[in-house]
Specification:
The structure holds 2 protein chains of 2 kinds.
Chain A: H1 3-18, H2 44-55, H3 74-86, H4 96-108, H5 111-122, E1 128-131, E2 147-151, E3 154-165, E4 172-178, E5 189-195, E6 201-206, E7 215-226, E8 230-231, H6 237-260, H7 271-279, H8 288-318, H9 325-347, H10 366-378, H11 388-399, H12 405-415
Parallel strand pairs in A: 1-4
Antiparallel strand pairs in A: 2-3, 3-7, 4-5, 5-8, 6-7
Helix pairs in contact in A: 1-3, 4-5, 4-6, 6-8, 6-9, 7-9, 8-9, 9-10, 9-11
Chain B: H1 7-23, H2 26-34, H3 43-51, H4 70-83, H5 89-103, H6 106-117, E1 123-126, E2 141-145, E3 148-159, E4 166-172, E5 183-189, E6 195-201, E7 207-219, E8 223-224, H7 231-266, E9 268-269, E10 272-273, H8 278-305, H9 314-340, H10 351-363, H11 368-378
């Protein structure tokens, strides 16, 4: 038996023994584990599953064991993913620490910073949020104004952030602040980490069109943060910010990937079967126009999944992000939005209920209500993590090499 | 499975590209059109392509071929799509050679496959009977006689009929139009009495004809495979050809897209390159994304074909390719004209040739609507 084969056998046996039965079903929204100081485990098996996986570092399989990660190589981590998929095991932990901050810290932070933060991300002890956008700095993120002024061995932070996902539930924040005011805007930004319990930090949830409040406004009023919490070089935060955005976009483009698969459960899980069910069709979708549109959507989804696969193969060969990856975020988001628009057509007015007014949900089933909320949520996909339009600009300039009008305008206005 | 080219494939791509650029630029097709060439392609050009092994790339070695595989043939087709090379690749190599290899008897294979691989033989594929691709609707009748069959009916849009020495004919020996049972394949000499060829002048300037069969008597050994059981081999043949044609379309799509991006960088208006305007940048970026999806689908389908008996999901992959490539081919060819402005409308400029070829290729072997319908059926809805 080769090393990989025996790794697979051991992994399979371990998962069989340690993955609780209830963790082998799709996770409802309120059972997804985000971790953190104030984590609530609606299903106690979730906690058990997290602790068992975290003890092996398998919440972050490829991260270095030195910092609590699984220390697996690519091939082993693929096997782990396959074996988890085989038994439909839930991810034990989902977090911005895992998908965004961790990879950047591993690449750019000091050994001490890694020792302090990485193990807590792996174990789900600290929940992170992202302090990027500001009321006056959205697509033009580098125009951010939140300032950090050195006072002894601390920075004093003043300003505000917006669209901070789950800031009200987060323990720590990774934040972009302006530390130099006399240089071009990209050159005066630093990347800093701090505790959300720091005096002067407050959050206020923002109610969205979906009725949920996943995003917050976050205010800093003379918040004092140790100077050693800056990651990377002072005033070089933009480099880290961009790197982290790449990870964020990869995460978001994953929405489109799962969008193409039919294993999501609920009404959105299998678009065409849902459309047939609501029309009483048995072997063929009776509405030919909708059938054509769903076929087109499914073909695009399959082609998109293949493109993600090809992009990953190309990146591996060239050892770096490649041109193709630049279109994945946009295409994935558009697919997810298309899925929900089609779902509305598939389900009709039953997908347009806001809430149930009956005890037995005879007016709207919970899975029907979920469609409306998820449809509204999906509208944000092409805004968060770089808008659709900004992403198109990136493709036009970086991949196609077309001239950059924005920099022409900025140069001109700089002269005036 | 790799969706990225290996070293051999990159070399093949480079050599195919320089051959097409040097020996068969769009000017060759233009000349065929302007001289109303009855054959539809230059014989000596086809002979050079044969010498490169392109006619026998997927023919088994036992029958004089090279077994270079479908990924290899796809690379060649992509390059021929970039310069719109007029050649009997779709008719003879993708359709007829595949059908003969899949359904033909030992004698038929020995007689025709080496001849195709060596360029001696051109075999046209007579399938369509109406203005739309619909293989199950075949009605051309094959009636059994004492010593063979008698074929009667009409075929439309037979590619490269004018150059062919043989036809592979899709006929009905039983059942009614729409049935998949009762379809039989025959291979017949073009000079058989009762066959008449009516050449067509198509917008893409490629060779096609309507062919009539008036009580054409063919011997029993003209039948390919079992009588009335031709449907599975026909389906497989069509799927392989749909994937191959998609590869050709991918080449044309990429070529037009490259020309668009070049033009956006060259053309100046209002004192700036027009590529600096966001209205055009965004459309270019959207096209780029679509081209990337097309590439992934075609590469996946070709490499799946190369897995031979282990190939999976070929019918769905073929329909995905043909549906998506037809759609994107329409988008890019239209944007090609629009983004070039007035010059895109002129005959002197090459873009019109790509636009015209795009529409014919879209209709050939099923358009996007046909293939989305087929895909939905294959996926159970």
């Amino acid at each position: 038996m080769s090393d990989l084969e025996s790794f697979r056998a051991q992994t399979r046996a371990w998962l069989e023994e340690n993955c609780p039965a209830s963790m082998r079903t799709p996770a409802p929204e309120d059972e997804v584990v985000w971790g953190g100081r104030h984590a609530v485990y609606k299903n106690p098996d979730s906690k058990l599953w997290l602790d068992r996986m975290a003890a092996k570092g398998w919440t972050c399989p490829t991260w270095s064991a030195e910092y609590g990660g699984g220390g697996l190589d690519k091939a082993q981590s693929l096997i782990l993913a396959e074996e988890m998929q085989r038994i439909s095991a839930r991810p034990p932990l989902v977090s911005f620490g895992i998908s965004m901050l961790g990879p950047v810290l591993l690449e750019m932070a000091t050994h001490e910073q890694k020792l302090e933060h990485i193990p807590k991300i792996v174990r789900g002890e600290i929940r992170w949020c992202q302090g990027y956008s500001e009321p006056g700095a959205g697509s033009d993120l580098a125009g951010l104004a939140c300032k950090a002024i050195l006072d002894g061995d601390h920075y004093v932070i003043n300003g505000s952030k917006i669209w901070t996902s789950y800031a009200d539930k987060a323990d720590w924040i990774f934040c972009l602040v302006r530390t130099d005011f006399d240089v071009p805007k990209h050159n005066g930004i630093s990347f800093i980490l701090f505790d959300m319990q720091t005096p002067g930090v407050t959050t206020k949830p923002i109610k969205l069109i979906s009725g949920n409040s996943v995003f917050c406004e976050t205010f800093f009023d003379d918040a004092r943060v140790p100077a050693g919490n800056v990651v990377g070089r002072l005033n070089d935060g933009w480099t880290i910010a961009k790197r982290l955005l790449q990870h964020e976009r990869t995460m978001i483009s994953g929405f489109g990937l799962t969008s193409g698969r039919n294993n999501r459960g609920g009404l959105s899980g299998n678009l065409e079967q849902t459309a047939m069910k609501y029309r009483g069709d048995t072997d063929k979708l009776s509405d030919p126009a909708l059938r054509d549109q769903i076929a087109q959507f499914r073909i695009d989804s399959e082609a998109f999944a293949l493109t993600s696969q090809r992009s990953a193969q190309e990146a591996k060969l060239s050892k770096g992000p490649n041109a193709t990856s630049s279109m994945l975020k946009n295409y994935g988001c558009e697919l997810n939005k298309r899925r929900y628009e089609l779902l509305l057509q598939a389900v009709g007015t039953q997908a347009l209920g806001w809430e149930s007014l009956t005890e037995d949900a005879s007016d709207f089933a919970s899975e029907e209500l979920a469609v409306a909320r998820e449809w509204l949520r999906s509208k944000g996909n092409s805004i968060e993590g770089g808008t659709y339009e900004v992403q198109l600009n990136v493709i036009a300039k970086r991949v196609l090499g077309l001239p950059d009008m924005t920099s022409m305008i900025e140069k001109q206005s700089g002269k005036l | 499975m790799s969706l990225v080219f290996n070293e051999d494939q990159v070399m093949l791509q480079e050599s195919a590209r320089s051959f097409c650029r040097e020996q068969a630029p769009v000017a060759v097709l233009r000349k065929m059109r302007d001289t109303k060439d009855p054959l539809g392609y230059p014989k000596e050009l086809w002979q050079s392509m044969v010498e490169l092994g392109w006619a026998g790339m997927t023919v088994p070695e036992a029958y004089g071929g090279f077994e270079f595989g479908y990924s290899g043939l796809g690379i060649v087709l992509e390059e021929t799509g970039r310069t719109l090379v007029p050649a009997p690749l779709v008719s003879t190599v993708l359709l007829s050679a595949t059908a003969i290899n899949l359904a033909g008897s030992e004698a038929q294979k020995s007689a025709l496959l080496p001849a195709i691989a060596s360029g001696e033989s051109i075999v046209a594929f007579a399938l369509e009977e109406g203005a739309f691709h619909n293989p199950a609707q075949v009605a051309l009748s094959a009636v059994k006689t004492a010593d063979g069959y008698e074929l009667s009916g009409h075929k439309k849009f037979v590619l490269d009929a004018a150059a062919a020495d043989h036809f592979v004919i899709v006929a009905r020996s039983a059942g009614k139009a729409g049935d998949t049972d009762g379809i039989s394949l025959f291979v017949v000499d073009v000079n058989a009495p009762g066959i008449s060829i009516q050449p067509l002048s198509m917008v893409d300037s490629r060779s096609a004809a309507n062919v009539s069969f008036d009580k054409v008597k063919v011997p029993a050994n003209a039948l390919m495979g079992a009588e009335g059981a031709g449907w599975p081999a026909l389906q497989r043949t069509l799927d392989i050809a749909r994937i191959g044609l998609s590869a050709e379309m991918l080449g044309s799509i990429q070529e037009v897209f490259d020309r668009i991006v070049d033009y956006l960088k060259q053309r100046t208006q209002f004192g700036v390159q027009i590529g600096a305007f966001q209205a055009l940048q965004h459309r270019a970026a959207l096209m780029y994304s679509e081209v990337e999806l097309c590439k992934s689908l075609v590469r996946k389908a070709l490499s799946e074909l190369d897995r031979g008996d282990e190939a999976e999901d070929i019918p769905a992959l073929a329909s995905m390719c043909k549906a998506k490539l037809s759609e994107v081919s329409a988008l890019i060819s239209n944007e090609g004209v629009q983004m070039h402005g007035g010059i895109g409308m002129t005959d002197e400029f090459d873009l019109g040739f790509f636009l015209k070829r795009a529409r014919v290729a879209q209709q050939t072997l099923g358009d996007a609507l046909f293939h989305r319908d087929r895909y939905a059926t294959l996926r159970g809805f």
